[in-house]
Amino acid sequence: MAAFRGNPVAGPGRSPKTQVANKRLVVPFEDNRHVTRLLGEYDSHLALIEDRLGIEAHAHGNVVTLNGPEAQCELARFVLEELYKRVAAGDAIGAGDFDGLIRHAREASVPGDGQAQIMTRRRVVKARTLAQSTYIRALEKSDLVFGVGPAGTGKTYIAVAYAAMCLERGVVERIILSRPAVEAGERLGFLPGDMREKVDPYLRPLYDALYDVLPPEKVEKDLETGVIEIAPLAFMRGRTLANAFVILDEAQNTTSMQMKMFLTRLGEGSKMAVTGDPSQIDLPFGMKSGLVEATALLADVKGIEAIRFTGADVVRRDLVARIVEAYDSQK
Q1: Which residue among 133, 257, 270, 305 is least crowded, i.e. fewest CB within 10 A of its CB?
Q2: Other CB atoms closer than 10 Å to residue 78's CB: what's the count?
Q3: How far apart are CA 143 and CA 40, in angstroms?
Q4: What domains can you pick out in the chain, each with its CATH number?
């Protein structure tokens, strides 16, 4: 996909230093049926574009008229035309697609920086920020990728979606999901139930992502047959994980020894994604996080990449981004 090439001015709430002349752009589309889906119920998607870009947008029939600063109008046209193509191809779109494409296009300034995507039978996951595109491309080319950053940036969801795609395409034979349970010591014995019942509550975000990108019946079947395996971090010791996509979530709560043990499980034909948020470490005071140590220690090792997300990459909703920013400002 061609990325937007422009230098958008500040949006609402941000004051440009110089007055920018307004421009009127008329954007026609071929099929009214697709336009109806493109614009959303009661033109809600146009309202989102107006809010994000500080322009006026009006629809009449199969034509959308944009009024505002030239760069912002050009960006709006790019977003509308790109998403129209998706609608015409039969894809479902929502407000998140508009928001994500606007953000991605604003950040992309180098040719070839189009939205990276992950395709499974159930869903197409498109990057909503430039950092997400960088993350997806890192997963494509490297066998070990760290996704580090605050909640809501999509680092875990993207890792699970990419693992699902690899499983469907036969790149790997199974998916292994792991997470430190309860606390770094992983004291699971007092919890009722079998091992899956013990760790399920701590792996709920991974399950949610799996059910979102794969048919529910396939997830259930693969869990029963072991194609998708849920394994507490402590149970990884002594194993060699071959031909698998392995994900360690909440890795900020691993100790140095646990992290070393986990990373050295990587076997032939396997890929590994390690995700975590260094700002939410629950380890006892004075204990070093294995995630923080590993990303520093392995920074220059060939075949390993670390993608760092910030509060600006939060895609959950604007309020979450503002919460992250408020906490970060105290550091």
Answers
A1: 257
A2: 19
A3: 40
A4: 22-107 (3.30.1370.10), 117-328 (3.40.50.300)
